[in-house]
Amino acid sequence: MALSTTPADAATGTLILSSSPSGPRIVFNNPTAGCHSTTSAFTTVTNRTNVFATVYQGAQCQGMSLVVAPGTNPMPVGERLSVSVPS
User: Fold this and answer.
1) What is the pLDDT of residues 70-82, one digit of tens each?
2) What is the largest CA-CA distance in the chain?
3) What whole-number distance in Å separates Cα of residue 64 and Cα of residue 66?
4) Residues 38 and 26 sit within 8 Å (Cβ to Cβ)
5) Are 16 and 45 spatial neighbours (Cβ–Cβ below 8 Å)?
6) Which of 1, 9, 58, 78 is the most exposed place for a label (fewest CB within 10 A)?
7) Is the dihedral of CA 48, 11, 24, 40 positive or negative?
8) Tens of pLDDT along 49-68?
9) What is the pTM of this model?
10) pLDDT attached to residue 20
11) Of residues 29, 26, 21, the one with CA closest to residue 49
């Protein structure tokens, strides 16, 4: 029997950031805790993790923020450049 575990400071599930429903996507499987900046803006978040994720307008989790609940289907969030996952 094989066991698969995630680090204690990781969310369980998938977090998807995209620039449109059919556009490029950034996928975090079992995302680690902390701030994750992107190189290009995303406008939609799909949060299929077990934690709340916070998206920010600026890089390095700066600027206006919006919280995305766990289990959220694609949700428009406006132009964002970073996301924070809690520990």
Assistant:
1) 999 999 999 999 9
2) 46
3) 7
4) yes
5) yes
6) 1
7) positive
8) 999 999 999 999 999 999 99
9) 0.86
10) 73
11) 29
